[in-house]
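seq:
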Amino acid sequence: MREFLRSRSFRWMMNFWPCYQGSGGRITRIAGDWSEVRVELKLSLRTRNYVGTIFGGSLHAAVDPIYMLMLIHRLGPGYIAWDKAATIRLRKPGRCTLTASFKVDDTEVEAIKEALALEPKLNRT
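struct:
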């Protein structure tokens, strides 16, 4: 996954954006074509809950905007992407640094564009 200056600049801006910074998450890599994004969430005083594991709200906030941002950049101008709903299933307590890798390949982008050619709106899960 090669990162270009433009995606690196966006990553830097996102990591210092107060709204995202508050989650405790950190975007560590954005592919130059936005096909892959990696996020890291460290267990820290800011992200720790009462029992000493990563707070579920921090997990959710760190990953929530990623697919929307990826689709905005992958689809290009003329398309609008919104993050309307999300669910998260916590499998076990986070006791160390957690990482997430998000991928949206070319076939997925083409499928979305084809569906939008037939319908003005599209809801994806």
